[in-house]
Fold this protein.
Amino acid sequence: MQEKVIKREVFFDALKPGMKLITPILDDNGRVLVPKDTILTDKIIEKTREFFDGFNDTNRYWIEEKIYIRSQEEEKYELLKQRIADRFKPYQNNHFYQFLENFSLKAFDYLIKKCPELYEK
Amino acid sequence: MKNKIFENTTKNIIENFEKKNTLSAVREIREKFNTLNIKEIHNWLQTNYPEFVDKTKEIFNNLIYQPKTAIHNIDEAIAILGKYKVLETVILYKILKDTFLKEDSHIRKQFYHNIATAIMAHYTVPIFYKTIDSNFEIFICGFYHNFGKMLLLNFEKGMYLNIFDESITENLNFYEVENKVFARSLQILLIIRILKYLEYPEKMQNIIEFYRSPNLGKYQKESSILHISDILVSSLCIGETGDNKLPEFNKTVMNYLHLTPDLMKEVFKLIIPRFVDIPKFTKIILF
C-alpha cells in the first residue's frame, strides 16, 4: 500500500488519534490548549472534549494525516482473491472444497506474481 | 425457436469455414502428415504455412509442450514431440486463424481458460492413470471443451453477452443459464457439431459432450479427467468462463478417481507452473 500525507480542515468532532495539528486548539480567550504540531492521542482528544463540555465547538482545525492508498494492482489482487473465495461459497462446510480453496489461493498468489497477464481485466 | 438459434449459429460458423476452405485445408494437413516423411512435411509446411514454420521455436519451446531438448525447426519438433502433437497444433493454428480475425479480450480470456484446462488434463492423466501414457488427444479435448463459447463470442456476441449477463444477475453459471433457456448447453452442441464437421474422431466428440457428466459418456476415464481439469482451472479464476460459482465435482467421478487433498496438492504442484506460458502462447497462436 502506498502511504500519502494529506492536509485538511476538520471540525473538532472529526479529530482522531494519529492526526497532527497544524493549527493549535485555543480556548475562548485565545490561550493554547493543544499546541500546533501535536500528534493527537485518545487522551488529548478526551481531555479537550471535557474542556469544551456543554459548548458547541464550531471551530475548524487544520490537521495533517497519513492515508494509505491501494495501488491498482493491489485493488485487482484483492478483487480476484475475493472472486476465488466467492466461488467456494456454496461449499463452505465441505472439507474437501476447503482444501481446494486453500490450494487455489496459494496457486493464485504464485501465478499473479509470475504471470500477471493471466489475470488481465 | 431454440433449434433455430442453434441452426443459424452453426450455419454462420460453417459458412465461414466454407468461405475459407478450412475443412479441405484440415483434410490436407492430416493427409500430408500421414503420407509424407519429416523432411517432406517440413517443406510442405514451409510452402503452405510459412508463418507457422517461422514461429516454430516460440510455439513449441515452452512449458506447455515441454520438449526434452530445445526445438529449432519443424523437423526437430516432429522428432522430439511426435507427429501427432505437431499435426494437431498445425490444425489448431489453421482453425484459429480462419475463425478469429479481430482481437477481442473476451475471446482471449476464454482461450486462457481452454488452454489451462488442456494443460491440466494432459498432465493429469499420468497422475490418475499411472499405467496409461498421456496422449495429446486429451489436450485437444481440453482445448475444445469450451470452444463453443469462443465461437458464440465471435459469431453471436449479443447472445453470449445476454447469457453471460444473466449468469451474473442470477448468480448462476453459464451452463446453468444455457440449460434454463435452451434446455441444453448450446456451446457444447455447437462444438460437437463443429468437431464433426471438421472430421475430428467420434471419441473426442463424446469425451467433450459428457465432460460435465462423465458417468453418462462412452469414454468415462477421459471425460472424468476433463471434468476435474475444468473445475480445478475454474477454481483459479484464470481467464473467463462465465461461471460465478465453482461447478460441483461429479460424485461418481470423485469415487472413481479417488481425488484426495494430497492428490490435488500433487496435481497443483506439478501443473500450475506450466500456466505461466499461456499468455505468450496465446499471442503467438491466437492474437
Remarks:
- The mean pLDDT of chain B is 93.
